């Protein structure tokens, strides 16, 4: 019985660790108009990964991140040609000379 409990405990610890490693996060919300207007989408995924913005390519005007995460916007796919670092609500990316130019982003914990 003790061996069975030990095996069950190890399985639970391993399963919990795998869930923690593969957990997805709400990374960033972007909208195609300033002040979070127009069409918006929230990307959910893993940290420390470069993501393309798909149909929002060259069409993002505002962006916001979620607690403890920061995201860097990039002018080109593959996270090339770095733009602003989003650390909170960016109501109008034109103020950072980055309106309608985002093609990819990369998020991580601060």
Question: What does this 3D model show about the protein?
Answer:
The chain is of the alpha+beta class and 110 residues long. The protein has one domain (24-109): Gamma-B Crystallin, domain 1 (Sandwich). The chain is built from one helix and seven strands; from the N terminus they run H-E-E-E-E-E-E-E. The protein has one helix at residues 2-21, and strands spanning 25-33, 37-45, 50-52, 62-65, 69-76, 80-86, 104-109. A four-stranded antiparallel sheet has the order 3-7-5-6, with no helix packed on it. It has a three-stranded antiparallel sheet with strand order 2-1-4, with no helix packed on it. Strand 5 and strand 6 (80-86) form a beta hairpin. Residues 1-20 have low confidence and may be disordered.
Structure, briefly:
This protein has one helix and seven strands; from the N terminus they run H-E-E-E-E-E-E-E. The chain has one helix at 2-21, and strands at residues 25-33, 37-45, 50-52, 62-65, 69-76, 80-86, 104-109.
